[in-house]
Amino acid sequence: MAVALTTSKRKFNKLLDSLTSSSQTSLATLQDVPSTSTPQAKRPRTSTESPNSIRSTSSSIITRPIAKLKSTVADTPPRPAPNYAPWNQAAFLARLKTFSDVKTWSPKPDSVNEVVWAKRGWICEALNRVACKGGCEARLVVQLRPKRKDADGEDIDGSEDYSIEVEEELVQRYERLVVEGHAEDCLWRKAGGCKEDIMRLSLVRESVWRDDLRERCRSLQDVQEDLRDTRTKPGVTDLVPLLQTLDESSSCEMGTSTATVDITEASGSSQPKILTPALFGWRGAVEASNPILTCATCSQRVGLWLYHRPRNQSLDSAEHDDDLFVLDLVHKHREHCPWRNSETQCGVGKSEGLAGWEILVGNVRLSIRPSSTNNNTAGSAVLVTDSAASDPVENAIPHIDTGTDDGAFVETPHKSREEIESEDKARDSRLKKLRRALSLKTTMAKLKKKG
């Protein structure tokens, strides 16, 4: 009986081996293989592909993750600018622009006006409500006057009773809240706010103010038909015909490059209409088919249709309301705008106490004078001299010498083209030497780390 059972088990095992041998070696067979067995001989290659094709395939497989890595790096969005950057003028002007809407911010005393709040990192997010967005997220409601009452004695939403004077104690309380309204760990409270000269216009370097003037002239081309009567300062309108002299001299010095566009070429035939507002910092724009003037610094917007005289106006009313249709290019800026306000411009040296438009006019006069005496005819030189002699505010608009970024004004002689080219070559040579020294220093540091 025992023999029959053993025979049956053996047959059963053979049957299982025959069923599994066609697909894979059984686990029991693998375990029975001795560990000291000799390795099997290498099988011959049966692939018809050449080694070069195999190598190219492997290299493409290796480079594919690198390409994916580059695409992911390119697709990553740029990091947002830090909230605390009191030195950043663009960030300050962006905060100041949030206060420009009269529907959300009403006029405040100078000690707690929009400039003071923006210098400490606040923005206007709702009706008379400021917030530290991106920082401590604190919020304050700046309400200096009570709301007006309607006929039923109810408060009118979004209104202020300007017949009531502002209490001095309330103003002093908000002066403290400009700083203490932030959280205790907020940098706008601990480290301080923007400096007093954060609104200063870049009007020292000629390459900067000349390009900005051209850009404003280009933008004003779209609204030149709507620029009617404008009021400027004495001694400014005579600069318009002389700007042609300035551009001719600059074109001779810089060659006939197509990248350089003259100011007079950008302004077209209507030079006085376009150049005069541009000298006072205004740009042109058309929004919803309405022509407007804008200031990129104080975010002021002036609708030009408001200064169009009605056609059916009588002569008596025209004489009485004559000033209503004259656009004052200086006083239409906001009170804190450096184009109008010399205190926010914070000029130093010879530009101390001058507003932005006065500094720009002085720079234009300085640029015209050398070109008229060196390159132009005697008639042009006499034109500048006569203008300077007959101008009643010539002393009020001084000729400002070019200077450095920190405001240190120095007199610089007019250089020839050869001198400028030699200076550029010397500067490039020094930069190349500096790059070689830095690259050598970096290489030595890497070798020390490897060693």
TrEMBL record:
GO terms for cellular component: nucleus. Residues 86-227 form the C3HC-type domain. Residues 26-58, 397-434 are annotated as: Disordered. GO terms for molecular function: zinc ion binding. The keyword Transmembrane does not apply. Residues 278-365 form the NuBaID C-terminal domain. It is found in: Nucleus. Residues 412-431 have a biased composition (Basic and acidic residues). Residues 47-58 have a biased composition (Low complexity). Keywords: Metal-binding, Nucleus, Zinc, Zinc-finger. PANTHER family: NUCLEAR-INTERACTING PARTNER OF ALK (PTHR15835), ZINC FINGER C3HC-TYPE PROTEIN 1 (PTHR15835:SF6). This is C3HC-type domain-containing protein.
